[in-house]
Amino acid sequence: MKTIVDNLAVEYSDEGEGRTILMLHGWADTMRTFDPILRYISKYRVIRVDLPGFGGSERPKETWGVEEYARFILAFCKKLECEPDVLVGHSFGGRVIIKGVGEGLLRPKKIVLISSAGVAKPKTWRNDVLRMVAKLGKAATAIPPLSHVRQKIRKKLYAKIGSDYFAAGSMRDIFLKVIREDLLQFSRNVTVPTLLIWGRDDASTPLSDGEKLHAAVQGSQLKIIDGGSHFVHQEQPERVAALINEFI
Questions:
Q1: In terms of DSSP bridges, do strands 2-5 and 45-49 run parallel, antiparallel, or are they unpaired?
Q2: What is the number of alpha carbons within 13 Å of residue 76 lying toward its C-beta?
Q3: What distances in angstroms separate CA 159 from CA 58, 130, 153, one per listed residue?
């Protein structure tokens, strides 16, 4: 389905009846990421949305940060005239939830964070060197004989850093603004019941991030799924859905 929110065309789905769950996907993903678990949470009304810039939703016209995305969710809910009982966020979607709830913009009864982003990555000597190499690579490949391989070299360099910057395309300015913010301070303001679900083998948002969020959000629960990676909700949907159902 389509609607207009803050002058942006937005793709979303609204299925089922009962208590309302609003699900927010991760960076460079879409609402379809939650398809595998829907069959196991069918007794609820489940609303999903492609966040602006992803899937079938228009890109923001300005350089948004996490707060703008949180305010978008507030406007989206007002447009649909719904007050979600539960917010579920994967990765970047979790980042939006932490910011929105921590600032008091979003007021669900409970929240579920799956492999949530939001904990700033520590600066390391290795990453500083690699970033320097990436910048040097940009300059070096500007030389005419090397310009045709410039994009390929930069892509490999940024991949080594572990950054999605190169893959962000037209969303790079938004990506940089989003990842610069450490949301641990906002997670300490979260007072609603919170469930953290983490794959033990998550390499994108490692378990140590989940443990930091668990320590910051008073009274939160941390459930670790063995063998799960960053997309644990797709790999083990029945297990993840069971944890959500039990928590709700």
A1: unpaired
A2: 27
A3: 27, 10, 10
Question: Sorting pLDDT into bands at 50, 70 and 90, what band is 130?
Answer: very low
**One domain, residues 85 and 198:** yes
166, 221: one domain: no
The helix (H) or strand (E) run that includes residue 127 is: helix 125-140
Do 110 and 198 belong to one domain?
A: yes
User: Amino acid identity, residue 32?
Assistant: R
For the domain that residue 242 is a member of, what is the CATH number?
Answer: 3.40.50.1820
Q: What is the pLDDT of residues 135-186, one digit of tens each?
A: 555 555 455 555 556 556 655 655 554 555 555 667 989 998 999 899 999 9
As for how many domains the chain has, the answer is 2
Range of the domain at 161: 125-174
Contacts 24+ apart (CB under 8 A), 146-153: none
Token pair, residue 166, equals 């190169």
Residues 87, 29 share a domain = yes
Per this entry, what is the length of the chain?
Answer: 248
Nearest of 111, 88, 122 to residue 232 by alpha carbon = 88
pTM: predicted TM-score of the whole model, two decimal places:
0.86
204 and 155 share a domain?
Answer: no
**Of 184, 170, 3, nearest to 77 (Cα)?**
3
Residue 17 has pLDDT above 90, yes or no: yes
Q: Is residue 106 within 8 Å of 85, Cβ to Cβ? A: no
